[in-house]
Every structure is written in structure tokens, then in C-alpha cells.
Amino acid sequence: MQEQNSPQQPDRFSTAADTGLPPVKVPFQFSADSGQLHRFKFHGQAMEYFRIWIVNILLTIVTLSLYAPWAKVRRLRYFYANTEFFQRFFDFTGLPVKILYGRLIALGIWAAFAAFGYLEPKVAIFGFLFIYLAIPWLLRATLRFASRNSKYGNSRFYFEGTTGTAYKQFFLGLLIIIFTLGLFTPVAVWLYKRYTLDHLYAGQLRFKLNNSWSDYMTAVYVPVVLFIVLLIVIGVLIVTLIPMVGSGLGQAGVFLFFAAYLLGIIFVGPLIQARIFITSWNHTTLGQSQFETDCNQWRYAWIVASNWIVKLLSLGLMSAWAAIRLARYQIESLSLSLADDPDQMVNMLQTDHSAIAEEISDIFDLDISL
Question: What is the mean pLDDT of residues 112-119?
């Protein structure tokens, strides 16, 4: 990816490590409207990404999934490189070979558990328990690796969350879910979001989630309650009107009830996803700067739901179009009110983190992405 720097000024992110010279701080010309909102932009195109996507799919199949790390890096680099903020672009610098090593080790662990589990079923149970208990470590290691290899301009992201904190949040969320019979599952979502954001840095600037667990309870249960109320209203109308009109209306009413039920099932999940997206970003700060999103929950839900339908009808061939469509809406709905001098976004020197944990999580289908 080519980093976008103005030819009229030196790169304000340059460090001694980059040039071999003593560090020189170049003043950044902060615009007069620096306290106002600055929007994110997305430049990806469906046909352009389709070429990358189809090659990734074909090569992954031909190489029996060995090409998957290269496919992952190509995909991430495309979306990062087409995301712009304040005249600079993002980049993903992860090396496919390192991810491949992690994937091979993950496959080896999975194969060992599968082989021993075939010979002794108790081993399979132990293997499942081992992976389940490893989730917090996998989460923390994945976030460290992904952050270390993500850049904005020349400023790297950094994740400082500890494994101990990850286990505390994990078991706290698990206890909440168990003792509330799942009713307070949104609180676990809040704990996860808070852990991933509160320990994330962009250069020297720290992300912070400033809402509470009640916001996530509202985000999840408002769509669920609306869905239940809609079904009750339709049910009451059917029961009330059938004696007056006859069985013909009854059949139409039953059809309407099941149609509403199917429609609700399709849209409730995307609507919850939209509301979580909105409440998360509207309460996230970066240093002193505040994120905002003008995302419309109904449009977001429509995009997600219609993407599912289009991908299903096209047998997956429209997946690239669907991915670009959703990414464009998510990214372009975001803005940031800059209250910090961008000179603070300097490189934070870090040691390289292993890709092994990230690939183990992929093999066992653990969705722990931000």
C-alpha cells in the first residue's frame, strides 16, 4: 500500500528508526477546523475486490487451503488500503508466511486431538475443554498480533491488554450468563467491547469505551421486544377478526403471522448488530477526540439482511459485492472530532507478536474479531 503524504511537507511520522538520523519533529499544519468532525472515506470497488476475492477462493481450493494466509493478508490489505482518514490511509503489514506457520501448528494441534479422540473419546472431551479455556488467551494474542500489524500512516496500533485481564473478563461474563440464564448476555458483549477498546492504542493515543452495560441491554432487547410485540398484535388481530369474517381471513391471517415471524427472524439479528455498532462508536474516544456515527439502524439492518439473501441466491458469487457494500456503509458513517494534535500519533516501538494464536482461533471457528 502506498502511504499518502503531501509532497509539500515532510512525513511528520518519520522516526530515527526509519531514517537512521536523529529524530526531527516536523510541525504539522493543523487546519482551522480541527475541532470539527472529519469523516472516514472508503474507496473500495466491488468489481475490483471481486478479482481479489475470486483468485483467493480458487487458489485456496487448489492448494488445499495452504494459500489461505496469503488470501487473508490480500483481503485485509485491500480494505485497509482503501480506508482513508485525514488524507492518510491504513495498512496491514502482517506476513503471510508467519501466519502460515501459525496455521500449520494449529492444524497439528487439531489433528492430534482428533486422532487421540478417535482412539479415546475422553480425549476429545478434554480437547474441547482445553480450547474453550484457551479462548481468553487466543483473544488477547490475536488482538496483539492484529494491532501490531495495523498502521495508520506511519503510526502503528498497539494492544496492551494482559492475559490475566482477559481471563477475568471471560469468567465474569460466563458467570453473568449462567446465573441470569442468558438474559444478561449483552453484559458479556459490553465486557468484551470494553476489553478490546480500552487497551488499544493508535500511536500514543488510547481508545476508550465510555458507555455502560445498560446501553448494550437496550441495544439487544429493543429489537427483540419490538418483534414480540409485533407478533402479539398480529395474533390478537387474527383471533379477533376470524369470527367476524370467516375462515378465508383466518388462512390469510395465519400466512401473515408466519410471514411476519420469518421477516422478524431475518431482521432482528442485523438490527441488533446495527445497534451495537452505533452504541459502541458513539461512545468511543481516541485520546480526547470523539468518534461519532450517523449510521441508520434500519438501513444497516437492511444491508446486512439483503446481503445474506443475495449471497444465498447467487450461491456465494455476490460475496465480494456484499462485503464492499457493508464496509462502505460502516466506514463512511464514521467520523472523528479531532481534539488532539496528530503529532501525538507517533510510532510505538513493539516486539513482533506471534500469529499462532490467531490461526488456532481461525481453525476452531472462534469469531473473536473487533
Answer: 75
